[in-house]
């Protein structure tokens, strides 16, 4: 802590700005101790955390001071100083006007766009810790939860409480630190019990926070049900059953665009994958949240008609040209049997938007690499053709290596059927049970169920679904052209 000595603040000064640690100045209580509000002529409004001498050890206190004095970022809490006189352990921070995220989960005053901005800024803070400290090691926060995400007067999030943070000396997102279970029940990565913590443990905890934001309530703590709680298992089940709307406040749900919700919920689910290697990095989480925000912003800035046609033509400067060099805009993978009429409608709708498509049977796999956007239409007989399954493998490879856009449509099958090869989908695919590529196909199908999707319902005509899917693809195209101007310039954040 020697490099932090200039941050030392005398105990007398801290006592003065808190009126002698008066009870009236307490703004938060926790197992770590008490937080007081204080006003300083030099530093302005302060949040002063007086740590419990019994519960907080020298290691936790020292880690907090070391990290926050060394690493600075707009989405990390700002450490003003510390005090360790007379056996005290006191941390002094800049006071954040809106305190912490957990206090606003139920608020009806925050729009969905504001929720997204908060989540995105918190994700950027965590990404900084994981990837951007400029050092040869990796940082793990160790206690990500909504009460440790502070909010300033502009609702920008600040990651706080680094007492349980760890430093991995190996430069890898999957570097493991073997340690005893720590963190907060409900947020802790269950894989910690099987071999220590990694940065993906933070990703898991952040996924829990994202579900809290989506549902407007805290996660259930083991042994305490609280007020209408939810569990991670419950949240994941609602995602797979496509019943998330049952958990979301109706007023908030009405604000959300389908693309924004789909993108947000998909990355949230992926954060909570049981296998740590299957979880995204925080860089990917940031990218997904930026897209979710972008989709919401586009909806806010434009008035869409039922077919979105005026958006396509008003932005025709982006279409009718192919700056990326791809031969085709959209590659469609389908069984052709059940979906022929839908595919015809879709191709017509895409053509109106100035997008070229490929849906012929010849040289399918070679054309995939020459296409920019992929659409997979899953149906009962999709898995009955091995070339369809090979298509999915090739598509997923392109997505992983080159970042191509991909979405899926479920036609008379459910995502869970594709993911687990069950139901009619599984029956059609069962003839390949002993095929040497079965393991590769299954893995690709699981990956394909994680992308944004559309579910065909019996009461939705082919034409209506085709327009929605075409609008989604068109929006991705618009995203590619406008993305850097709306997000990188931070116009809305």
UniProtKB/TrEMBL annotation:
Residue intervals of the TIR domain: 326-473
MF (Gene Ontology): ATP binding; protein kinase activity; transmembrane receptor protein tyrosine kinase activity
Keyword Hydrolase: no
Coiled-coil residue windows: none
GO terms, biological process: signal transduction
UniProt keyword Transferase present: yes
Protein kinase domain span: 21-294
Entry GO CC: plasma membrane
Record keywords, A-Z: Transferase
Entry-linked Pfam families: Pkinase (PF00069), TIR (PF01582)
Signal peptide: none
InterPro entries: ANXUR1/2-like, Kinase-like_dom_sf, Prot_kinase_dom, Ser/Thr_kinase_AS, TIR_dom, Toll_tir_struct_dom_sf
Protein name per Swiss-Prot or TrEMBL: Uncharacterized protein
Source organism per UniProt: Helianthus annuus
